[in-house]
Design a protein that fits this description.
With 202 residues, the protein is of the alpha/beta class. Strands 2-1-3-4 form a 4-stranded parallel beta sheet. It has helices at 3-9, 14-18, 42-47, 54-63, 67-72, 100-109, 122-129, 138-143, 163-168, 171-188, and strands at residues 33-36, 76-78, 117-121, 152-155. Helices cover 41% and strands 8% of the residues. It is globular. It starts with a helix and ends in a 14-residue tail after the last helix.
Length: 202
Amino acid sequence: MSIYQEIMEDSQNVAYTNKGWEPIFSVNKAARILIVGQAPGKKVQETGIMWNDASGDRLREWMGIDRDIFYESGEIAVIPMDFYYPGKAKSGDMPPRKGVAEKWHTRLLAQMPNLQLTILIGAYAQKYYLHLTAKDKITDIVANYQAYLPQYFPIVHPSPRNNIWLKRNAWFEEDVVPNLKLNVSRILNQKSYSLVKNESLM
C-alpha cells in the first residue's frame, strides 16, 4: 500500500475520504525544493491542484517561477501541515489538525533525497520545523531568515489577507523576496555553489 493510500485509509482521515476528498500533497524523488504550508484552501481541495489560488500565484511570483515549473518540472514538492481543507473559522480557515505532520512528514521526506531547500510558509510550518516557542514572533523569524539557511527559508503566507502586513513590512519584498528568488534560481539552474544567505542583486 502506498503512503497516499495509507493516508486516505487512516482513521483520522476517513471522514474526508468518505466525502470523496483526496489528500493534497506532492512528493517526487527528483524534487530539490520543498514547500511546507498550512493546509489546502477550499478551492485547492475542490480542484485537487496545490496552490491553485491567489496565494499560489503570489507564491510563484515570490519564487520567480511559472506554473509549468511549479507543477510539471518535478523539482517542486509540496507537503502541507494537514492534507485536507480544515474548514472555515471566524477569520480565515481553521488551523491544520494536530498530529498530522508528526505522523506523516518524516516518511514523505524520506522519499525525497535530493532536497536542497525547504520553504516554510506561515506560523504552523515554522513552529514545527524550526522548533519555535509560543514567544517567538513570526515577523522576527522571517526577518532573520538568513539564520535558517541553507536548509530552511521561512516566509509569510502569500495570502491576500496578509496585504496589510506586507505594506507595514516593506523590507520583506525589498530584501527577503529577491533572495528567495535568487536561491530558487540557483537550485533550479543546477549551480554547483552553496546557497547564499544574503546577497545584493545590484
